[in-house]
Amino acid sequence: MAEWAGPFGQVESTVAMYAVIATGGKQVRVTQGQQVHVELLGADQGADVDFTPVLLVDGDTVLATPDQLAKAKVQGRIVGTASGPKINGFTYKRRTNQRRRYGHRQKYQVIEITSIAKG
């Protein structure tokens, strides 16, 4: 951990380990103990999941090359499910009396990150 002396001489920690993972077509920055909302993974609540395409790990040193990241591992546990905000939509075609209202709420799984390993 990188440390520096604050304005009054106390030692403060400035770097916490984090990783960038790819899931559901999106990139997510995660730290250990954090809960994140990701696209549905098709696993039950309480199941352990591994995120294999780890894109970056940063702690004391940055791991970014493919051979370094091949050993990196991010593990999490499915805590539950959640719903996103409601999206209201409306379609119509003029002069034909065709109108349609619809709503949609995207479902997400809540993942708690249990460990980030550099390998």
Rg measurement, Å = 21 Å
Number of strands: 10
**End-to-end gap:** 17 Å
The number of helical elements comes to 1
- Taking strands numbered 1, 2, ... along the chain, how are they ordered across the largest sheet? 4-3-7-8
Explain how this protein is built.
The chain is mainly beta. The protein has one domain (3-117). It contains one helix and ten strands, in the order E-E-E-E-E-E-E-E-H-E-E. A four-stranded antiparallel sheet has the order 4-3-7-8. A four-stranded antiparallel sheet has the order 5-10-9-6, with no helix packed on it. The chain has a two-stranded antiparallel sheet with strand order 1-2. The mean pLDDT is 87.
Write a brief structural summary.
The chain has 119 residues and is mainly beta.
Detail the topology: elements first, then pairings:
Layout: E1 3-5, E2 11-13, E3 18-23, E4 26-31, E5 35-39, E6 48-51, E7 54-58, E8 62-63, H1 66-69, E9 73-93, E10 98-117
Antiparallel strand pairs: 1-2, 3-4, 3-7, 5-10, 6-9, 7-8, 9-10
List keywords for this structure.
119 residues; elongated; 3% helix; 10 strands; 1 helix; mainly beta; 63% strand; four-stranded antiparallel sheet
